[in-house]
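Anyone up for a design puzzle?
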């Protein structure tokens, strides 16, 4: 295991350390895709707000310039997974059952944010609603619904 590329080896202990230290970025450092797109997370009370900083590598349309739709979807999906891992203290990474996204407007080359709402959790399946915006929470660039298989 390289020092520059930490891997998720023991999810339960990783999530426990994050809960203990309240350092959610430590968890993101262990997820290669989150590192690649530059994801960050901040906690405000019981709320997590995920941040995708403006980054040239995330551009899909250089004419506008606008974020690649896949980057927006990946950012939102990863936000939901992290939210579930932290608040449900999972021992495994939740697996996507389905993911449905609605793109509402262009995501320009500036910081983007996401919030996740766990709307239902059964014994094995969790339903998460994700909102993504840039300058104003009321002007969403995308919204998504996802179901995850949890342990």
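Challenge accepted. My sequence:
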């Amino acid at each position: 295991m390289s020092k520059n590329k930490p891997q998720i080896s023991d999810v339960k202990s990783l999530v426990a350390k994050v809960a203990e230290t309240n350092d959610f970025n430590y968890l993101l450092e262990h997820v290669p895709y989150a590192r690649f797109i530059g994801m960050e997370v901040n906690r405000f009370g019981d709320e997590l707000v995920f941040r995708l900083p403006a980054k040239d590598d995330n551009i899909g349309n250089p004419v506008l310039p606008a974020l690649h739709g896949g980057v927006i979807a990946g950012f939102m999906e990863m936000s939901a997974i992290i939210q579930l891992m932290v608040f449900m203290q999972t021992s495994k990474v939740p697996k996507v059952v389905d993911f449905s996204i609605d793109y509402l407007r262009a995501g320009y080359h500036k910081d983007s944010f996401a919030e996740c709402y766990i709307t239902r959790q059964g014994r094995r399946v969790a339903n998460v609603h994700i909102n993504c915006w840039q300058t104003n929470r009321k002007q969403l660039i995308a919204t998504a619904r996802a179901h995850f298989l949890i342990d």
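A detail worth pointing out: The longest strand covers residues 112-121.
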